[in-house]
Every structure is written in C-alpha cells, then in structure tokens.
Amino acid sequence: MIKNSGTTKCISLGFLMAALQGCGGDTNTNTDLSSVKLDGPTAGWQLVWSDEFEGSSIDAAKWAHEVDCAGGGNQESQCYTADAANSFVADGMLNIVALKAPEGAEKPYTSARLTTKGKADFTYGRFEMRAKLPSGQGSLPAFWMLPTDNVYGIWPRSGEIDIVEGVNLKAATTDGNPEAYVHGTLHYGREWPKNEHSGKAYLLPNGANPADDFHTYAIEWQQGEIRWYVDDYLYATQRRSELRYNSKGEAVGLAHKGWFTEYYDQSSGDLQLSWSDAPFDEKFHLIVNFAVGGYWPVSVNETGIDDTAFNETNKYQIDFVRVYQCATNPDTGKGCETVRPGYDKSEDALVEGKAPVPVPPSDGTPKDLLIFDSSPNPNWAAWDCCGGSTPGLVDDADKGAVYRFVVGDSPTVNGFISRAAFITDPAGVPSPFDAAPIEASGVLSFAMKVVSAPANPGSTWMMKVESNEGATAVELPLTASSEGAAPAVGQWQTFSFPLSELAAKGLDLSAIDVVMVFPAWGTGSGAEYLLDEVKIARPNASLPSLTIFTDNENPDWPMWDCCGGSTPQVVSDDAEHGIVSEFSIGASPTVMGYINRTALGGGGNPFDASTLYENGVVQFDLKVVNAPSTADAPWLFKVESDNAASAVELPLTSSIEGVVPSSEWQTFSFRLKDLADGGLDLSAIDVLMMFPAWGQGEGAVYRVDNVKIYQPGSGAPSAFSLFADTVADAWSIWDCCAGSTPTVEADDAAHGAVAEYVIGAQPTVVGFFAEDGVYHDASAAVDTGVVRFEMKLVSAPNDSSSVWKFKIESGDASTAVELNLTDSTEGAAPVVGQWQTYTFPLKTLADMGLDASAIDVVMVFPAWGTGEGAVFRLDNALIGTP
After folding, report:
1. Is 165 one of the annotated active-site residues of the chain?
2. Which residue range or ranges hold the GH16 domain (predicted)?
3. pLDDT tens, 362-379?
4. pLDDT one-digit tens code per residue, 258-292
5. Overall pTM surpassing 0.70 (yes/no)
6. Per annotation, catalytic residue among 66, 76, 128, 165
C-alpha cells in the first residue's frame, strides 16, 4: 500500500482492473490448519524496541503524527491530524479512529497516521503488532514500513513493506459473504507508473474476521527474504531475485523471480536494474494508519464509502507493536527463521515477484524478425491489452490471411506481444528480439488497412514499441513514420519507423517485446483495422552467400572423401544440371562432401553464416546413380564448424522438402536456424557432407550439384525476363494446340515490340514455352518474387462469358497452378484497348503447390474452348524480384 504523499498506488493511466488484481493480492489463501502445528517464533529473537501503550498518551519519543490532507497518495478521503479525537491511548491500547469531518473541511473525513521515522529505524528483524482492525466499506487500516533515507530513489525504488492491510472488512464480497482477507505486500521496482508489487492475501481459519478480535500480524525480515505471519502462522514468503549466468559470467535469466529495483548509479549517473537484496537492505521505519477510501477500497466489495462506518465505535485498536533482533546474526537477520514445511514452495507460501528477466548480452549477430505475415508467429501473440476483444485471422482480398483488431467502448491498445503471460500457442515461447545489431539499417514496419475509423474524428493513430517488459518504450503517431501519411479508410498502407530513430528516442533495441498499433487511448471506440507484414528487418541488407559447387568446383571447397581412398569426380549430367560432383563408395566405410580446411586442400576460410541465422539455408541437389548394397541405409547430411568444434548430423528426410533420395534429381534444404539451435556454430562452417550412414554405403554412386549457403529471396539475381521486345533465349512465344504462330508486333512508344496471340475456332492455350531440358529456377526469389506481365486486349472473345486465365507449370508439368487474372494482385479483368499489369506472387504460387525451381511454361488465355475471336498482346513478362 502506498501511503507516500503525492504518489499514486498501483493505478496507472486508467488500468484500474489490472491494478486491483495486483493490489488485492495475487493469490488468495484459505488456510487449512488441521495438519499444521502453529508454533510460536523460534528462539533467538531479542526484543529491541516496543510500545505496549500502557501510558495515558501517545509516546512522542517513539511516534510522530503526520499531518496532511494529501490523501496518502491514493486519492484517499481523509486528512491526517494530530487531534486526540483521531488517535489516543486508552485501556492499554492505541486507538485510531476515522471520523466524518466538519462541514466545509478540505476532505470529508479525518484520521491519524503515526510513524517512527527518525525515532526508531531498523534493518532486518521481526516486526509484529497485535491489533483488532476496523471494518466497513471504504476502510483501509495498515501496519507497514517505508525506507527512512530513500537510498535507491523515490517510491517505490527504495521499497515498501506492507505487514498487514485490511480492506473493507465485513463489507459484502461478490459471493455475499463478509470480507475477511488481510494482505501482505511488497512494492518495489521502477518509478511510477512502471512500479511493481507482489504479495498474498490470507483468510483466518474457522471463519474468523480480523475486525471481530485481536490477532498478531508480523513479518520476519532477513537479508534476501521476508516472511508474513498471522498468529504465528507463516502464510507468505518473498525473496530477492536470483540470476542465472552463462559460462562467461553474463546474466542470461532468472533462477528465481523475486523483487528488484531500479536506481541511478552514483558514479556514472546511468539508470541501473538491480536483482540483489536491494531495496530491502536499508533502514526502514514503522507506520500505522487508518485510511478512508482511495483507489483500492472504493473499487471493490460494495464499492464507494459507507459514511456510517466512520464513527467513534469503529476503532483501529493496537495492543502492542514490537521489534525483535536476531541475536545469531543481527547484521543479516539470519539464524532465527520461524518456518514450516512448504514455506519456500511456490504452490504453498512462496510468492513469485515481478522482476524482469535480465536482457541476455547481444551476440552481435544481425538478424531480422518476422512478427506476422499471413501465418502467426507462435512467439508473438496478437493481443488486445485491455478492451476484452480477441484479435482474429480474417481473409483479405489483397493480402490473404491478416489479423483483425477492433476497439470497443473500453479504452485499449492492440498489437503483438512476446511476454509469457500473453502467449497462448503451446509452441510459443517469450522471445524478446535483439535488434541492436541492425540499428543502423533496420526498420520496424507493417502494412495496415483501416476498415472503419474511430467514432471520434479527432482520434490520432499511434504506434508504440516496448522493450524489456516496458523498461523502455517509444510512442509515435503514424504520421511520424517514414511515409508521413495518416491511415485512410479502405486502403492498405505501409508504415515504417527506422530503428535508429527509435533508439534516439530512448528505446532499448536489445529486447523488443511489444509492437502496438492503435487509436490514441480512450478515443478509438468503433475502430476496426487489419495488420499484415509486421516485421523488424533490414530492407536492403546485403547478406552473404556461398556457392560451393555449381557447374564446377569452388577451389576453396574441394570435393572430399574422408576415409575411403576414392577421388570424387566432376562429370557431365543432364541439360539442366550440366557439370556435377560424383561420389562413389567402396568397401571402406567413409563420409563424403566438401571441405574448406587447409590441411585437406581447402582454402582455409570458413564461411560465416551468422547473419543468415533467421532465414538462411544450406541447400543442394542430389541424385542417386547406384543405391548402396544395404538397401535400407539411411542417407545423412552433416555440417561441421571451426575444425569440428561443433557439428550437426541429420537424415536427408529431415530437410525442408522431407524426401528420400532417389534416381531423380531432388533438392534438399536445411534451415540454418535449425542447425544453430541444434548446436552448430554458424560463424565458421568448414565442412558439408552428404552420404549413406557410416559402414552402410558400399556400392553407392551419387551426384551432387548446386551446393550453396544463402538466404532465399536475398541477393537474388535480377528478375528473369521472359519477354521484353524479344522472347528469352531457349524460350518461345507459343500456341499449344491450335496451330497458330504467335508473332512479334510493334505497339505504342512505351511498349515497342510485343508478343501477339490470336485465338481461332480450335480450343487452345498460349503463352511462353521453354525448350526441352530448359527450366528457370526461381526458388531463391520465392519469398519476395513475382510472375508479372503486361497485357492489352485487342479484341475480346466472341463468348462474352469467357474467363481469362493464368497458368504456370514446372518440371514438365509435374506441378502447375492455374488462376483467374482477377486473382492477381491487381484484381482486374482485361479491358479492350488498355495495357494492364498482372502480378502473381511466387510465394502464393509456391504455397499452392508450384515447384519454383524448374519453371518451363507460362500461359495467358481465355478459358479453354471459349476464346474464339480473342486477340491480345503481352509485354514485359518476368519471373523473380523486379
């Protein structure tokens, strides 16, 4: 409980319900005492300070009254006074009474708050109070501690220890029973509004209520641990956080999630996080007070304040307050622990704190992150913070699967999050993204379409990105993007924010875990919008690639027989592959492949594939000429790094393609990310091997080609031109079945020479056709490439219902995809007399089953049998990344 003047308790920016869940205790405990022995405190505690309230007045040597009307920092409704009507000693008790204030007073109630600050300050010990708590809706009595010197900074950086709080005791709960819980809580962490707290609620046994009788409330505070007791029963334990370290001594995780603090380093002036004993390792003083109202009490139970509850008879009565020191070790408070079985178990008494996970040190490897593009990333959940909606996938005519977000009457923010509490996919794990290595060139970007604007015409669309569980954040209007445009209803628009600008505004790029897009808080009701292509990436990154073999050996990577004594050969294969590697295995067990090590003839310059980690592959083509004598011998792939300091071996069937080697050429691709996750150091790859399992390969002859390490879609060659004034070499403009001969004709100045097709009475399909054995490999461009052409309809088919088609084939028609022209990105049907562009993403075609590695036919035509009378022209036809 915050009772520090001018500070707000738990509530930040309207997130009231989330705060109530925290401030009310994260875990309610109905204690079963039937099997628990209620022993008193252990021996070794020595009384060092106490007040038994046996005199006739409050002892001014021990207590001071705080006098103010600040509302305790929680929007409370009392003024604290030193008036004897609000606090007095009688019958061996300290009595604190909250009363209605006179008409016209600054606050509607008066009460008292007493503190030992400067009179009795303590570090570690046992602190206990025997008291009967007051009741009533709006009542909040407390016994608690604040730091005397604020060594780590203002609240809550220097901490707060709530020994006991009672909220609205005897007021009706949601199930109609009288409220009876008491609460023990710690406050700590970052400065408001990023403050944290953790604690537990406790219910007295046998239906007892803290407002009916006296009970003893206590904590035992020692170095690194604080324990809470009611009538000597230990019901909650909280501890300092414990870090996990790697072999280099770098903090990489939490062995225990406990408390933490944030403070300014006095030598450097930098803001630091501490997972140590801090802030609960300095001097604290005691406080007793009786608050009226405030954020917490008025928002729960019967809500509001029951005016009749605040009178002379509803007293906070304190029999004694006592402080003990552990004689065994006063400097740490250790050695006098009053514990029981289960006190240190999370399923019993141990409370998990709110410490953030330390940011692992950056490995310096530039990586890109795809948060969402058609398929959800299990590590990044689509998220409605506070509005109660559930973002869902919907189909969009332009983008395919996209995420839909809505904003209702409840203020909220929406987006994507990678924090454990919000990840629902069983395969998902929190994965804060380290964008620091790509600060100079990286961009946070997304595509957005507003379906319906907010009802509030003055609403501003915002982007917010957070790092390390909100430790740093940057919020900007979408008009601050590189594009500088505001969202327009019904249009897909891209918004880009350079990482360098976000870092300059204070964002820690090393642990990005939230990306949000939303109408400004509280102004978004009625908004509906779609998001796609959400990523943090280098748009123009120059990524490395390595070609180990294609048409001939790379002299730095010679072919290699490890142990069998053979000499791999360069031989000629079919027209598509040309010169290839051939490996033969005899009686001696061996493994084969390509090697870069100097001692074995290689160039001695291992390949650093670190920057390809996220999306790169090792890829090769393989054909079995003769199978091994052992018919069921598994075929394997092995990659080594740094003179075999690390290696990964996998069956070829675990490739992306998942196929078994055969007498046909087949492609095998292995994701670098999977290899790295399997233990391979990507920074010094020096051996690639493909072979039947050791000792089972005799008799095998096999060929390998197109061996490379690269990132598909990056650094791809210029798009392959099918037709631009003339048709590509080894390709023709083609009529499948009607016997006509398409021609090259002159068109307008912009297009020059174009291909013209005429459809007669004979059904046919037409387009571009590769010669036998000629194929175009567009696999490297699948992620970003397209098939694109321009078309002009000179005369329409006689059949007005005819539908225009696009068809693409690969591998001598082993795979094919056929679509309507209206399925293109442009979505338009041909119009007589107009040049129109048609674009089909390669990824869409590949997802529909096209093998992009051997494209040999591209067709455009009216549906079979409906095209008579059609005349049309094609130009600027290409495959790849424009």
Report:
1. yes
2. 41-329
3. 767 778 889 998 889 999
4. 999 999 988 888 888 999 999 999 999 999 999 99
5. no
6. 165
